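FORM 7B: Structural annotation worksheet

SECTION A. Query
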Amino acid sequence: MSRAVTGRASTSAPSPGIDFGHAVVIVRGRHGTPSGRIGVRTAVVVVALAAAAVLVALIALGTGAYTMSPAEVAETLLGGGSRAQRLAVVEWRMPRVLAALMIGAALGVSGAIFQSITRNPLGSPDVIGFNTGAYSGALVVMLVLGTGGFFVTAAGALVGGVATALAVYFLAFTRGVQGFRLIIVGIALSAVLASVNTWLILKAELELAMAAATWGAGSLNGLGWVQVVPLSILFAVVSLAAVALVRRIPILDLGDDAARALGVRTEPTRLALVVVGVAFTALATAAAGPISFVALSAPQLARRLTRSAGVSLLPAALMGALLLALADLLAQRLAPTGALPVGVVTVSIGGLYLVWLLAREARRQ
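SECTION B. Predicted structure
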């Protein structure tokens, strides 16, 4: 049964309605009109994922040459602890952990957007080429133009990602965009851009080429507050744009005819979602390089936990944050000689997920 909730968070008797077997909460506005439905299971999953991400973050903040317990880390974050503890937690480790959480959330949201647009679990930015396009834009800035800095690299990644997205979108456009065609065109363009990226690295000076190749593996090594502060600002701006579009995603999932009947302009909305999804991918790529498989797996794992009909942005964001924070924790501890690029861990785990997903989709045919 559904439960009505007013804008003042008060509850009333259960109201009749169709919930298709799922317990939901109906959120009502000031005048009693329904303004949204929140699945109880989804709410529980969101809280659980957020708690798990916080726990992994506390463990990561306390793990290293100077080991601390989660309780000591929490005390330090609240203003306590010794000077050495504050230095280790706040200055050295927190920027990396926050970057992992934000980049993972950005990739999770980006994957959810593109999987919703394509209506296919393979429709993630690292599969259909947007990740590679953002990498191409960043490489042009770094190797061809010879400029650096987070904002300049982010701008290059954004331009490259948006240009790739527009190229894929218009090449796949025939009286609208079909998900399967978008994926095929994206895979083809991604292969072309991967060759271009390799050529750029081979033609660059040795020192720049080595730096670009290391960064291209997807790494959070060396991130500090200088990179995390602008990343946080840009992440907040793009998140606001995603929030403005989030209510239109379930309407688009109904089909173009039904969406138009409900007053949604399908193609402009879909194009706006593409730009937002690419912006998230570009931010992640500019900060840490191309990180594969988080955008592919996070929305589907979150969907299976929530048992929702379609992908949802908030569970996907929290799942992405949890996956990347956990992968980075493993990357720092698996190699005895030093931290691995987090992309190595995500590719290793994500490759197994992709094989399972392809086998599952093949059995459906």
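SECTION C. Observations
Confidence is low (pLDDT under 50) at residues 1-20. The two ends are 36 Å apart (CA to CA).

SECTION D. Sign-off
Analyst initials: ____
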